[in-house]
Amino acid sequence: MKTIACVNVDLPTIDEIIDYGDDTSLRDYDIIIFEPVIPEYERIEFSGGGSCIGVDGTRDFLRTTSHWARELQDALLAGKTVFVVLSPYEEDRAATGSQMKPQKQRIYTTEKINNYATIPVKVNLRNSRGKKVIVKNPIFKMLHEITKEIMEYRVVFENIDEMQSVFTAKDGASIGGILHSKIWTGHLVFLPYFDFYGDGFTEPTDKVDDAWNEKAIRLSHGLVGQLVAIDRALKGAVEATPLPEWLNKFESPKAVDEIQQSIDRIEVQLLDMARQKENYEAKKLDLLEFSHLLYETGKRLELAIEKALRLMGYNVETLRIGDLEIDHVIVGPSGIRMIGESEGKDNSAIDVTKFRQLESNIGEDLEREEITEPAKGVLFGNGFRLTPPLERGQQFTDKSLKNAKRLGSALVCTADLYSIAVHILDNPSDFEFKAACRNAIEETVGGIVKFPDP
Questions:
Q1: pLDDT score of 21 more than 90
Q2: Residue 247: exposed, middle, or buried by beta-carbon count in 10 A (0-12, 13-18, 19+)?
Q3: I need a labelling partner for 233 at 20 to 30 A (CA). Which of 99, 142, 154, 365 fits?
Q4: Would you say residue 83 has pLDDT above 90?
Q5: Res. 315: pLDDT tops 90
Q6: Cα-trace Rg, the chain
Q7: What CA–CA distance (Å, rounded) separates 333 from 287?
């Protein structure tokens, strides 16, 4: 008999309901049903608006996320089937630490988190909701027929290179499927969202106010039965007769034990290789984020700029004090203090409007008691970002150039930063080049920064 564990998923006929915060192992189960979530944690409220998860909550989230990522990976390596219920994609900010500034103002460092970090592969999803579900694989048709009253999609896939699409929306967008891997022997199955908390599935009893009713139990039995049938179909074998207990009393060939030992060693090696691959994939993605300097805008561009500046030897922080929030506070070995703003434009140069925020931040920063000199302004621009870099026109408008001279600000083309970052990554000990790049920014007053040739 198949043993089933539900993580964050309530099914009326499954007793093994595991909470996200538990450290329970999945090794005792044949089938896992998992829903990615961000639990409720105590939050830090910012005086200027917004909030983030507190430091203790962040620590707990990262610990449990790491636990479930390993457990799901191990389950797939062991040949098990993992069904992921595709809940809406959630992002949040989480505090990783804090420090006390003058006037007893506490500054928090944060990082972005999301609920799909537990899934042992990178999935590209965006939220989109609908009820029309089309089934492309016949082994899933009965599952949909049984659950169509409670099944809907909450996300769609934007990248399905390694996934066999099983469920689609009416327009053909993938909303669920089977993700294959050369490493796993198991199956990672993405299912459209469902739950049993809608109207008509609970009713009050003498003991509780909302007990599952017969309809919910009947539907749950059907759903679980179909998941078991899908698991068998994916493994490509009809369930064999279970091994009788008395079979252990009969001696088996010695080669069986030797082969099992070899299998055990290979499984350990595969697990180690899978973890190594996961680490390499993460490092690769981290390096590829520098390419955002060439074509991105918004937060992704800001983060890529910060990474490039840190490579050059700068310390870059986000400053939050009361209502004041500055994304890039840049300080280098020379001691010069700079404040940066960034802007990306699809098909035009960077115009003068971005200076308003830059000037405002420099002024508000100077009003702070501990600041005695105005910071140097730096405007990072990614103009014509959808055009190949070598074919782009002037990155900053004439008005921007004139305003930079008025303020004594430096203008930086983020596409130039990309070649700088690549050279430093390839030559991390080229400290002379790093210093020359910093000097180029710090000594440019009222113009576009000309970096040294890598």
A1: no
A2: exposed
A3: 154
A4: yes
A5: yes
A6: 28
A7: 24
Distance of alpha carbon 194 from alpha carbon 85, whole angstroms: 7
Q: How far apart are CA 390 and CA 367, in angstroms?
A: 42
Largest CA distance in the chain: 91
**Beta-bridge partner residues of 343:** 381
Amino acid code (one letter) for 119: I
The predicted pLDDT at position 244 comes to 61
% of the chain beyond a pLDDT of 90: 55
pLDDT at 238 over 80: no
Nearest CA to 36 among 162, 102, 120, 129?
A: 120
Q: How far is residue 136's CA from residue 12's CA, in Å, rounded to a whole number?
A: 28
Helices (H), 95-185: 141-147
Question: What is the per-residue pLDDT for 258?
Answer: 86
* Tokens linked to 426: 């390839």
Q: State the sign of the Cα–Cα–Cα–Cα dihedral 214, 219, 220, 221.
A: positive
The first and second tokens of residue 22, run together, are 């538990």
- pLDDT, averaged across the chain: 88
Q: Which pLDDT score, from 0 to 100, does residue 240 have?
A: 47
For 63-111, the DSSP string reads: HHHHHHHHHHHHHHHTT-EEEEE-PPP-EEEEEEEEEEEGGGEEEEEEE
Q: Which residues contact 438 (CB under 8 A, 6 or more apart)?
A: 312, 313, 314, 332, 333, 334
CB atoms within 10 A of CB 216: 22
Determine the Cα–Cα distance for residues 14 and 119; give it in Å rounded to an integer. 22
Q: In terms of pLDDT, which residue wins out, 197 or 32?
A: 32
Structure tokens at 19: 């909470």
Decide if pLDDT at 104 tops 80.
Answer: no
In the chain, the amino acid numbered 8 is N
Q: Which residues of 439-449 are buried (b: 16+ CB within 10 A; e: fewer)?
A: ebbbebeeebb
Q: Average pLDDT in the 404-428 region?
A: 95
Residues belonging to the chain: 454
Kind plus residue range of the DSSP H or E element containing 401: helix 398-407
Phi, psi of 40, rounded to the nearest 5 degrees: -80, 125
3 state SS of 7: strand
The DSSP annotation for 234-283 comes to: HHTSPPPPPPPGGGGGS---HHHHHHHHHHHHHHHHHHHHHHHHHHHHHH
Alpha carbon distances (Å) from 248 to 1, 244, 252, 258, 264? 19, 8, 9, 17, 20
Least confident of 79-83, 144-148, 438-442: 144-148
| Arithmetic mean of pLDDT, 197-206 | 74
